[in-house]
Design goal:
Layout: H1 4-12, E1 23-28, H2 54-66, E2 69-75, H3 85-94, E3 98-103, H4 113-119, E4 122-126, H5 131-138, H6 143-156, E5 161-167, H7 175-185, E6 189-194, H8 200-203, H9 211-231, E7 236-240, H10 245-256, H11 261-271, E8 280-283, E9 288-290, E10 300-301, H12 307-311, H13 318-323, H14 339-342, H15 347-354, H16 368-371
Parallel strand pairs: 1-2, 1-8, 2-3, 3-4, 4-5, 5-6, 6-7
Antiparallel strand pairs: 8-9, 9-10
Helix pairs in contact: 1-9, 4-6, 9-10, 10-11
């Protein structure tokens, strides 16, 4: 996760940026979902049954605390399908864990919106384009209107919901409109996720955009982040799953803010790029733990082994390799001058295309000159 707006503001104002103190776990509490999204990494289905019990979840929380988990993103499937989701969040909050909600918004209404606002520290609602594009991508003709209604319900309840958008060939024609939508709705965050080849995202590899298109879109995101900063607009722009975006921001600073380059480099190295298996992990509805939601291999099971032992790498040597600084990545990454910033990018994409966890990220759009090769 690349917090673009936060880095611009903290660097230009010589302030400390928000650093992650502890690990984030994306916990898929269910694999049930009322939609059939083309890019879904868990291949969620409305006919699936919940196998993870409330008691199993509660029993795992102390071990997560011991492992340094500070944030949990409630995900799925669709997490609001679970009737005990608020009870789960309450148990985590009692333990000092900050709770985020990632939802398609279709189960948010005027009756539960206030409870959602009071329960979750952040609410992200997925909108993947204009109405027709979103509905086609999500597989339900009601999904766009319900997502918009969900945002408004949250706002009416005194909260604010960010928009989550996945950039693909199917959604790119709505890319620029997403910024208009965020402004029109008064949302305070737009999270733009690059596609990772996993789940239905792997099945639909053809829906990814080209490297040339990606550069164009990322440069536009950077333009908007500076525009919002200069205008004093409280809209946080964040990109996900493409740590090379940091290099384009650095290039922009070299051109426009050379006096701040050293400060930004320090912040980027402290951020450290791809954090799968280190500051980021994924837990699923069957007890499996992965370094990130898209990762092709498990590193253990929290229902069979304590989570803290799994997260410490006692069940898999992959954890130690992921936490190496710098990671030992082959191909163009091996000699790239920015390996200590991006950390080699996505291991899931590398495996999907090369069959090798430690190959270069095939979606990297940096050229040889930028890599210093």
């Amino acid at each position: 996760m690349f917090r673009l707006s936060n880095l611009i503001k903290s660097t230009l104002e010589d302030k400390k940026e928000r650093l992650l103190n502890g690990s984030i776990m994306i916990w898929n509490f269910t694999n049930r979902c009322n939609l059939f999204c083309h890019h879904c990494y868990s291949k969620a289905d409305p006919n699936n049954e919940d196998s993870l019990t409330f008691e199993q979840i509660c029993d795992t929380i102390p071990s997560m605390i011991n492992a340094g988990v500070k944030f949990v993103i409630f995900s799925g499937g669709e997490p609001l399908i679970r009737k005990d989701i608020f009870d789960i969040a309450a148990k985590m909050q009692e333990a000092g864990i900050i709770t985020y909600l990632s939802t398609n918004g279709m189960y948010i209404n005027d009756k539960n919106a206030k409870k959602i606002v009071d329960t979750f520290n952040y609410i992200g609602i997925s909108i993947d384009g204009t109405k027709d594009i979103h509905n086609q991508f999500r597989g339900d003709p009601r999904s766009y209107d319900k997502a918009i209604e969900g945002i408004k319900h949250i706002q009416n309840a005194g909260g604010n919901a960010g928009i989550r958008f996945t950039l693909t060939n199917e959604t790119k024609d709505s890319f620029y409109e997403m910024f208009d939508l965020v402004e029109q709705l008064g949302c305070n965050k737009l999270y733009i996720s690059h596609l990772v080849y996993s789940g239905r995202g792997l099945d639909n590899l053809k829906i990814d955009i080209s490297k040339e298109e990606r550069r164009k879109y990322v440069n536009y995101i950077i333009d908007k982040a500076f525009e919002y900063y200069r205008a004093g607009k409280d809209i946080d722009l964040v990109t996900g799953n493409m740590e090379m975006d940091a290099v384009l921001l650095l290039d922009r600073f070299k051109k426009d803010y050379p006096d701040f380059v050293d400060s930004l480099v320090r912040k980027l190295k402290s951020w450290g790029g791809n954090s799968a298996g280190n500051r980021l992990g994924n837990m699923d509805w069957e007890g499996n733990v992965k370094p990130d939601p898209f990762f092709p291999q498990y590193i253990g099971n929290y229902l069979e082994t304590s989570f803290e032992d799994v997260w410490a790498g006692k069940s898999s040597d992959i954890v130690e390799k992921l936490r190496a600084k710098p990671r030992q990545i082959s191909g163009k990454c091996a000699t790239c001058q920015y390996i200590d910033i991006c950390n080699g990018g996505s291991r899931s994409r590398a495996y999907a295309i090369h069959g090798d966890l430690w190959a270069e990220d095939p979606s990297c759009y940096l050229n040889d000159e930028e890599r210093g090769i």
